């Protein structure tokens, strides 16, 4: 008897938490298909509250066709910055990680300690001088400001070192005996062996860039060069908030990411657990 | 991803920072040791010792491999860090273009600045509430879905899904949900005959609204960390406890909790670090209001630096805050270190 009560309680909790987790996302997607008036109309519990009555794509048309706020441009900006940072980051971080994990050179421990020490530097502290540096370089309102400071991610180097450490040194020595140079060994042996790790790190980097908010808010002032997250937040500060448009914008910027995330979450979870629990 | 991460970059970087500072967690040092000892073994056997030019070539290649990362790190992290320290000792306002040495002037002024002290209080209040509540919820979820059963994959995915919603977007959605007149939350509360809650314009409860939003987004992330920790506990310990007649609660208290201590330490430390730095939801939902009730430290720094353009004062605030976070992390590490290793 008590066993079946426990069973029911367990399932009730599982379902309740699932509803709480999903509901805001569901609400966002549904609101994006409502007309402007409808969002404010249904203030009682009922069917109209949970499903749009007059389905419409007008919000989506509006955000893409508004010349003052070029939504397609924001998407493209964010996508290109994220892709460049991810690609450059994977290459440069993997190179450093390979060196630390497999090669022998003087001052290795000291250099590694220096790299890792940067992890305790809080972003809030360096944000101000970084901004001043961008101003001095003339990079304000330029994608260079969004890309270059973000490429090196010491956490990523740290993670890759752990993966690379499993590659046997004998294989590298054998390739060396056969006359391969180190860059070739890196490209032909090490990188292919670390593909799962690179996918993991790539997803984490891409998501971080896609989500970045504070730094673009600070260094990008020109409307049409803004990234998606800041652009969406600027929809709200306008007079007469148009929730339908905002929800369409948030839906477009989240749903593709959510879909990819569901497909690749295994790798993402691997990254999280690698960083913390293996010890 | 995260624990309530204040900026997209922080969560995992703090993770690694902690990972490298938790005793025994640094497998990097381990691998460096391993290769160093392998090196020593090689040189002990002269016949197998690689030639000097071979070694020189390897060292040269190694440094070239590191160079790009090192250069970027030096320009964009280390140099700004030193400059931040320098700026914090100056009166440096971008608007009035004044720049003069201030000594500890900025720091002294901060300690009697009500706005700064209030922002510290708000950050701590946020952290003190989020830390236990979020940890308990996430651990509970991890325990609920740890065992395999039909549909477990579905629940794992669903609980983890909010992690992929960007913080800015989560904040935007909740702003609509919290709306007093047509927000979902109040319609449901009214429908159930409960009093309405106005998180966005009632200073007494505005921070709670932000707390709920942050827990919604972060619980799946922490849950995954706990799941990994739970899976590291060997089954035979539970079986042994079962044979000895321990009930589920006793097994949780005497087996799970002690063996989960390292994971728990990790979760507590990263949650604290990230919670203290909360910014994005504040900027988007309330901009620090109503009546300054949700202005946190990072919000104070942002306003001071980029609205008032008072760089020196903001840099000093950032440093003061950094020292505080560092001290708290040190205390937490010390507290957890006293536990028995297993």
TrEMBL record, chain A:
Keywords annotated in UniProt: Cell membrane, Membrane, Transmembrane, Transmembrane helix, Transport
Domain ABC transmembrane type-1, first and last residues per copy: 75-264
Presence of the UniProt keyword Phosphoprotein in the record: no
Family, similarity comment: Belongs to the binding-protein-dependent transport system permease family.
Protein name, per record: Carbohydrate ABC transporter permease
InterPro entries per the UniProt record, alphabetical: MetI-like, MetI-like_sf
Keyword Cell membrane: yes
Organism placement in taxonomy: Bacteria, Bacillati, Bacillota, Bacilli, Bacillales
Record-annotated membrane-spanning stretches: 7-29, 74-98, 110-133, 145-165, 185-207, 246-264
Membrane topology annotation: Multi-pass membrane protein
Entry's localization field: Cell membrane
TrEMBL record, chain B:
Pfam families membership: BPD_transp_1 (PF00528)
Subcellular location: Cell membrane
Region (Disordered), start-end ranges: 22-51
Higher taxonomy: Bacteria, Bacillati, Bacillota, Bacilli, Bacillales
Transmembrane annotation, as ranges: 61-82, 124-145, 157-178, 205-228, 264-284, 313-336
Biased composition range(s): Low complexity: 25-44
Coiled coil residues, start to end: none
Domain annotation ABC transmembrane type-1: ranges: 120-332
InterPro entries the UniProt entry points to: MetI-like, MetI-like_sf, UgpAE/MalFG_permease
Keyword Cell membrane annotated: yes
Membrane topology: Multi-pass membrane protein
Protein name, per record: Sugar ABC transporter permease
Cell membrane listed as a keyword: yes
UniProt xrefs under PANTHER family: BLL4140 PROTEIN
Family: Belongs to the binding-protein-dependent transport system permease family.
Keywords: Cell membrane, Membrane, Transmembrane, Transmembrane helix, Transport
């Amino acid at each position: 008897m008590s066993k079946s009560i426990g069973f029911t309680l367990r399932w009730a909790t599982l379902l309740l938490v699932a509803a709480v987790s999903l509901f805001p996302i569901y609400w966002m997607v549904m609101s994006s298909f409502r007309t402007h008036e409808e969002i404010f109309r249904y203030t009682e519990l009922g069917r109209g509250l949970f499903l749009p009555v007059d389905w419409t794509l007008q919000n989506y048309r509006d955000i893409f066709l508004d010349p003052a706020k070029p939504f397609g441009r924001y998407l493209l900006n964010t996508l290109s910055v994220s892709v460049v940072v991810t690609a450059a980051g994977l290459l440069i971080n993997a190179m450093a990680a390979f060196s630390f994990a497999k090669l022998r050179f003087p001052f290795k421990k000291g250099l590694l300690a220096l790299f890792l020490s940067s992890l305790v530097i809080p972003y809030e502290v360096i944000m101000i001088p970084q901004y001043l540096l961008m101003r001095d370089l003339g990079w304000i309102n330029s994608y260079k400001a969004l890309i270059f400071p973000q490429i090196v991610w010491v956490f990523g180097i740290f993670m890759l070192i752990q993966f690379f450490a499993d590659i046997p040194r004998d294989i590298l020595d054998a390739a060396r005996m056969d006359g391969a140079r180190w860059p070739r060994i890196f490209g032909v042996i090490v990188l292919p062996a670390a593909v799962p790790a690179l996918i993991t790190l790539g997803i984490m980097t891409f998501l971080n860039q896609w989500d970045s908010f504070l730094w673009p808010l600070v260094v990008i002032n020109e409307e049409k060069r803004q990234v998606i997250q800041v652009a969406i937040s600027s929809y709200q500060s306008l007079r007469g908030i148009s929730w339908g448009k905002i929800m369409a914008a948030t839906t477009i910027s989240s749903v593709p990411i959510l879909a990819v995330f569901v497909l690749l979450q295994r790798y993402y979870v691997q990254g999280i657990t690698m960083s913390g629990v293996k010890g | 991803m995260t624990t309530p991460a204040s900026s997209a970059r922080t969560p995992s970087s703090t993770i690694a920072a902690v990972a490298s500072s938790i005793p025994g967690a640094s497998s990097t040092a381990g691998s460096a040791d391993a290769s160093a000892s392998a090196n020593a073994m090689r040189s002990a056997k002269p016949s197998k010792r690689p030639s000097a030019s071979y070694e020189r070539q390897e060292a040269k290649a190694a440094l070239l491999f590191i160079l790009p990362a090192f250069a970027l790190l030096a320009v964009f992290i280390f140099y700004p860090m030193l400059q931040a320290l320098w700026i914090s000792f100056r009166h440096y306002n971008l608007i009035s273009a004044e720049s003069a040495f201030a000594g500890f002037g900025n720091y002294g002024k901060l300690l009697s600045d009500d706005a700064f002290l209030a922002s510290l209080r708000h950050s701590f209040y946020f952290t003190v509430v989020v830390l236990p509540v979020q940890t308990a919820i996430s651990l509970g979820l991890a325990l609920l879905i740890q065992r395999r059963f039909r549909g477990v994959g579905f629940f794992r995915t669903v609980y983890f899904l909010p992690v992929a919603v960007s913080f800015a977007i989560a904040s935007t959605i909740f702003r609509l949900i919290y709306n007093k007149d047509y927000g979902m939350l109040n319609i449901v509360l009214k429908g159930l005959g409960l009093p309405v809650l106005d998180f966005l314009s009632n200073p007494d409860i505005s921070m709670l609204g932000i707390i709920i939003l942050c827990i919604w987004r972060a619980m799946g992330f922490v849950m995954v960390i706990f799941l990994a920790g739970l899976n590291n506990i060997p089954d035979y310990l539970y079986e042994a406890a079962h044979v000895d007649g321990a009930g589920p609660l006793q097994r949780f208290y005497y087996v799970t909790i002690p063996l989960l201590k390292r994971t728990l330490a990790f979760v507590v430390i990263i949650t604290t670090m990230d919670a203290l730095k909360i910014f994005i939801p504040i900027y988007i939902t309330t901009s620090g209001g109503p009546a300054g009730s949700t202005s946190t430290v990072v919000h104070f720094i942002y306003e001071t630096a980029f609205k008032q353009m008072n760089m020196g004062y903001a840099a000093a605030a950032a440093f003061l805050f950094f020292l505080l976070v560092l001290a708290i992390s040190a205390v937490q590490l010390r507290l957890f270190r006293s536990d028995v290793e297993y």
